Amino acid sequence: MNDVPDAATEPRRPTRRHWRVGLIRGRIELRHLLRNPKELSGHLTNVVVALLVAAYVSDDVPGTDTPMSHLVLAGFAAYLLFQIGLVNLPQMLVTEREEGVLLRLRATPGGIPAYLVAKCLLVVVTAVGTLALLLATTALLVDGPLPRGPGGWLTLLWVTTLGLLAVVPLGAAIGAVLPNPREALALIMLPTMALLITSGAVFPITALPVPVQQVASVFPLKWMAQGLRSALLPDSARAAEAAGSWELPMVALVLTAWAVLGFLLAIPLLRRAARRESGSRLTARHHKAAQSGAVSP
Is residue 135 very low, low, confident or very high in pLDDT (cuts 50, 70, 90)? Predict the structure, then answer.
């Protein structure tokens, strides 16, 4: 039996008040992120790695006159969005669950919806800010790619938006079922790195065996990278794509499908995780962590 009852006025979806509270909470979390050098350095490190890789790669994309470094940077931009949604967000959720945040929110009317609004704001601003920093820095320091004309900027906008909609709800669903922060990173990173290698984000996907291409086409990273390449690279780079074109309608279709699936999974899984939280469960987890030496008793 739960030690903390659900708030009687807890709604099934955010109301205007909960959106306002969530946005306020999200702004506070953003300020904390900007004032936390350790967390901020993780995002800055990704940009530095991209700069180093772009400076090292010097060949052209096979069959085109597009620098390979531009293809790598476009893929790296997609991976940053993917990582923030499917690696960073689940870790945040499972860590705060272990610390009793969900338990406290259950006793607050509208606490869970406001919490989710805040997390969405934090993730979206972090992702867009990191992407903007990556593109601006690489353009200035290593002649990195930027969109060509209004059409390129519009494509960058909708691919980024749909990409985040595809991975953020999925990341929330994963965070709701992960066992604990100590195992979360190990469970997430291996499949994430496998997708990075097999999705054509760091080299032309046509270099991979056809069965690998077919498997990668099921997941959102492949289409996020392809959509961003269409925004950042010249049309001549289409020759390196598996279909010989950017396939933007398919990019939109696959990312939309993953967004719908993510929302269908995230909402019930997060509600289930919140309902299962109780004072006794929290105490038992802390006791187990202390016994294993993960935290001080």
Answer: very high
